[in-house]
Amino acid sequence: MKRNPAIPYIFIMLLGIALVFFLSVKGLGDAKEIAKDNKKGDAKTEAPAGQTGGKFDPEGFAKQTCVACHGNNLEGNAGPNLHGIGKKISKDEIKNVLKNGKGAMPAGMVPAENIDAMADWVANLK
C-alpha cells in the first residue's frame, strides 16, 4: 500500500484554516469586550492636546503641535520665530493666521473655540 504524499500538506492546510478561524472569532470577542469596557469608562482616555481638565492650555498645545515647524522653543525652524511676533503683527492678524493658515502653515491647526486664547499667548511670547 502506497501513501499519498499530499495528505500531510492537506492536514497542515486544514489545521491552518481552523487556527485562522479560531483566532478571528477570538479577536471579535476581544473587540466586543474592549468596546464594552470603553462604554463603561474603564479604559483610560487622554485629553486632547493642550487641554487639561477641560481648560485649554496654549503652552501645552504649542509643545505638542507647533514645535514641529517652529522649533522646540518656538525660536523658528521651518516656520518663523514666534518670540516677539506680537510686536510685529496685531493679535487679529495672529488669529487670522491661526484660523486660515499662511504659507506652509495649514488652516485649522488650532480649534476654533481656542483661537483667542492661543492668539493671546502667542502675542505675548517674549
UniProtKB/TrEMBL annotation:
Organism placement in taxonomy: Bacteria, Bacillati, Bacillota, Bacilli, Bacillales
GO cellular component: membrane
UniProt-listed InterPro entries: Cyt_c-like_dom, Cyt_c-like_dom_sf, Cyt_c_BACSU-c550-type, Cytochro_C550_firm, Cytochrome_c550/c551-like
Keywords: Electron transport, Heme, Iron, Membrane, Metal-binding, Transmembrane, Transmembrane helix, Transport
Transmembrane residue ranges: 6-25
Organism: Heyndrickxia camelliae
Domain of life: Bacteria
Any Pfam family matching the protein: Cytochrome_CBB3
Region (Disordered): 34-57
Record domain Cytochrome c: where: 36-126
Basic and acidic residues biased stretches: 34-45
PTM (free text): Binds 1 heme c group covalently per subunit.
GO molecular function, one term: heme binding
Residues given in the record as heme c binding sites: C66, C69, H70, M105
Protein name from the UniProt record: Cytochrome C
Entry coiled-coil feature ranges: none
